[in-house]
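Step 1: inspect the first sequence and its tokens.
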Amino acid sequence: MTIEERRVYDRQEATKRKRKQRENEEKLRTVVMTPELEEFVDELVSLRLDVASMALAIWQNENRQKFPLLAKPEYRAGEEQAAFTARSKRWERWGLIRMFATNAIARYKGRDRKKRFDDKEAKTAAELGMTVDAFRKHKRGQKLAEKMAQIAANHYVV
């Protein structure tokens, strides 16, 4: 495939991807901010960040779309600075929650896998009468020895 053919192919694939993305966006329901959703936002903003982001991730997963953005607060004439600051802080907090919600479920699953792995290693180390750190060093040493033996076997084949 020549360079020009490759460029044409890439352009066609990009067009297909974009068309498919637009079709998927059309299939999704458009969420309009209702009083219930505003109440949901207020509740999430009052929670801890990890809990709020997980709750939002679950909502987005169930509804198969991102939660709508909140409008950036603007200063209103005659408004006290404290009121504006409170609205601005709420908006910033909501942005953080939305950002962390994008991979909250994956992070939770990763933490769970890591915990199971650490528990398994601790159990194995205890069975061998070693500390976890010593067991990990021992495992690394074994893997390195296996790799070196494999390299030597492949390299010095007669």
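Step 2: inspect the second sequence and its tokens, then contrast the two.
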Amino acid sequence: MDHQTLALLGLDKDSLGAVFGVVGTLLGATVAFFGIRYQVERQHKEAQLDYATKECGRALLTLLRQFRTEPVSDGAWTEIVADQLDALKLTSPLFRDKALRERLAKTVSILEEWHYTVFDQPNRDEYDAASPIILAVLKHAIDCIGTHRRGEKIPEPNAAFVQAQNNISTYWDWSSES
């Protein structure tokens, strides 16, 4: 820049260095601010994923233990199952992967209607027959969370998962016809 341009801007040679210093400082601060903001958001998303994985995993493992035991009529068994299903309903939406969220929602739906998973005739909703199917559905959900956490694509529904969905659907079709 020549002397006339500097004079038009109201600057002399001595203050030009200060202007460049202020502009550089502001630019550096802006870049640092957005860099830190990006890191904080990334850490927040990672913490959210850790929390969802931990809580969903805990709920699924508790359900796995519950479905290995015979339901008792005092209501405690059913209450534990309901509590864990509520935990799954609250934490599964925290996952960013749509396919995983949908698979967990279908798992919850199956578990809410677990006694119809072996439906093949009216009034047949026995626990003993449903238990292996439910255990396989729960193991599949655990596998889905594990593969997602490793960054892999979630597996296709296993045979028990598909059978449970079909049997529940068959039950409701039969129920609506009756």
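Step 3: confirm your contrast with the notes below.
The mean pLDDT is 81. The two ends are 91 Å apart (CA to CA).
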